């Protein structure tokens, strides 16, 4: 079912399911304790209880749909193993019909194996379990038909489980497909809403930053030098917001604005998108770049996030118009590499 687990649909992971499993094991223990009359040894029936306890735990806990090969094999042999342990110590003739209890308990396991997509294996397990009962009847001189008479009645429950599985599993596949489609639609709507929200936020920010200057230009008179500088700084900040989204942080924006006001040429580039650095590394790089900008009085400073997969995550190039330029490199943790 494309990685889906039918346990989710049938609530087989719930507390109630495990409570039912506990009652199942208690029922096995009661059957074992109530059918000890005439048995040649007491421990095999209780060993069978442990087998069924392990089987029901595996049935509820094993992941995957259908069940994995290993889990399927263990569940398949649980019935014949438990039946062998019990029938090996039963008296001849039986002192009560309840002494064949492993037959009925094994059908419970095989029923849910059908639901979990292992119907052929469930039928194989039932046939092997019935073979144990028939073999015991034949060896003890009671006849094959006698063994068949009290073991064949378990075919009916498994037959119903088979039809149920053939009905519920296609429906489960359809339900999971609808759930997947619904998740995709919700994710698409959330992404679209996020895009619209981001657009509105950027428009609001642009309106708050640019409208006063644009209104001033429209109203006249000519701009003063301070106003021209404000326009230049605003244009640079807007350019940073487009070309260096991963570096847009309040501290770095402040340092860049101050450096540009002093005449330093500042360029910020984010070539890493859409991949991102973790917050700690980004904070270290932003802090280091801010300090470099605060210390620059002339020349140029280029801050760049490099594409992912390189040994260097970010660089800060300092050129103070002297004889040499200084390049500082940072790794994926935000620490200096050279």
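Sequence proposed for the structure above (338 residues):
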């Amino acid at each position: 079912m494309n990685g889906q687990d039918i346990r989710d649909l049938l609530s087989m992971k719930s507390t109630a399911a495990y409570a039912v499993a506990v009652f199942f094991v208690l029922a096995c223990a009661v059957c074992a304790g109530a059918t000890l009359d005439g048995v040649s040894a007491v421990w095999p029936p209780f060993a069978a209880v442990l087998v069924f306890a392990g089987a029901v735990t595996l049935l509820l806990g094993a992941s995957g749909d259908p069940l994995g090969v290993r889990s399927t094999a263990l569940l398949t042999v649980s019935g014949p193993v438990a039946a062998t342990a019990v029938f090996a110590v039963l008296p001849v003739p039986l002192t009560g019909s309840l002494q064949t209890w492993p037959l009925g308990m094994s059908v419970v396991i095989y029923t849910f194996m059908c639901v979990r997509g292992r119907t052929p294996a469930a039928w194989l397990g039932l046939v092997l379990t019935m073979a144990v009962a028939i073999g015991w009847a034949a060896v003890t001189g009671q006849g094959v038909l006698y063994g068949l008479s009290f073991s064949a009645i378990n075919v009916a429950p498994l037959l119903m489980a088979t039809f149920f599985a053939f009905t519920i599993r296609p429906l489960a596949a359809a339900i999971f497909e609808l759930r997947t489609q619904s998740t995709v639609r919700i994710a698409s709507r959330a992404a679209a809403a996020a895009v619209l929200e981001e657009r509105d936020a950027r428009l609001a920010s642009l309106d708050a930053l640019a409208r006063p200057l644009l209104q001033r230009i429209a109203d006249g008179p000519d701009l003063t030098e301070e106003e021209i500088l404000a326009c230049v700084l605003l244009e640079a900040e807007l350019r940073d917001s487009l070309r260096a989204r991963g570096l847009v942080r309040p501290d770095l924006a402040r340092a860049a604005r101050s450096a540009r006001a002093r005449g330093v040429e500042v360029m910020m580039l984010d070539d890493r998108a859409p991949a991102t650095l973790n917050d700690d590394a980004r904070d270290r790089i932003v802090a280091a770049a801010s300090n470099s900008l605060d210390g620059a009085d002339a020349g140029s400073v280029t801050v760049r996030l490099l594409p992912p997969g390189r040994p260097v995550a970010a660089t800060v190039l300092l050129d103070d118009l002297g004889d040499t330029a200084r390049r500082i490199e940072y790794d994926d943790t935000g620490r200096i590499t050279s």
